[in-house]
């Protein structure tokens, strides 16, 4: 009797597992459809149901994490992605999404760096991984490491304007103005009408004490994007260093006229007003 009973149990277990697989796949693919049409909350419910039927599939937890991420539920996304990675530790997409989740939570840059660095090791041709890793390094105050990571991202797309601007900005934050100038000049040659590149290049010229070039470049950036407060404040500092206080005040006035509560503009205006008063 023992052998037939064992056979029956095996059949029952087999049928049960097959049913679990079919039901879980049904909910999983339903979740994928919701995800594709932009309904992350419905997708979340479907993926949770799939996991109830088969909780050991790393892809289910990964997609659940992505649905939580899309809905802004970062703590729940982290939990689901951590579970997915426990089941499949070498999934670069899950590692990258976990790194983004940690980065966006704030105050967890070191953890984000660890996840994103691992994702780039597993998928070295994916530019997005380097982009988020560089941002995590920046958040952690590691500007030299961030600059090296932007350079890795640029290896496959050397004229990408966004990556060039970020590399130039990273050099500025690291106190390497001349390196920032070199990178941003390259970007400006490739994209001469990009106000973002010209604005950062003007800021780099200012940091490198090349005031005439800073003035010309920032004026061009402002011509292309007149509402960009940052470029006007940089130009005001150029004029201040040149001793042209009235022109500096004019640029700051353009900013405070649009945004009276702009803190940096108000501080610069007060400093310039004091200089103008002393000059009378």
Please tag this protein with its features:
280 residues, mainly alpha, 81% helix
Oligomer: single chain
Main β sheet profile? none
The overall average pLDDT, rounded, is 92
Strand content: under 5%
In a few lines, what is going on in this structure?
This protein has 280 residues and is mainly α. The chain contains 15 helices and no strands. It is 81% helix and 0% strand.
Describe the structure.
By secondary structure, this protein is mainly α. It is 81% helix and 0% strand. It is built from 15 helices and no strands. The chain has helices at residues 2-36, 40-53, 58-70, 74-87, 92-105, 109-122, 127-139, 143-154, 161-173, 177-190, 195-207, 211-224, 229-241, 245-258, 263-279. Helix 6 packs antiparallel against helix 7 (127-139) and helix 11 packs antiparallel against helix 12. The relative contact order is 0.04. The model has no long low-confidence stretch (mean pLDDT 92).
Describe the secondary-structure layout.
Layout: H1 2-36, H2 40-53, H3 58-70, H4 74-87, H5 92-105, H6 109-122, H7 127-139, H8 143-154, H9 161-173, H10 177-190, H11 195-207, H12 211-224, H13 229-241, H14 245-258, H15 263-279
Helix pairs in contact: 1-2, 2-3, 3-4, 4-5, 5-6, 5-7, 6-7, 7-8, 8-9, 9-10, 9-11, 10-11, 11-12, 11-13, 12-13, 13-14, 14-15
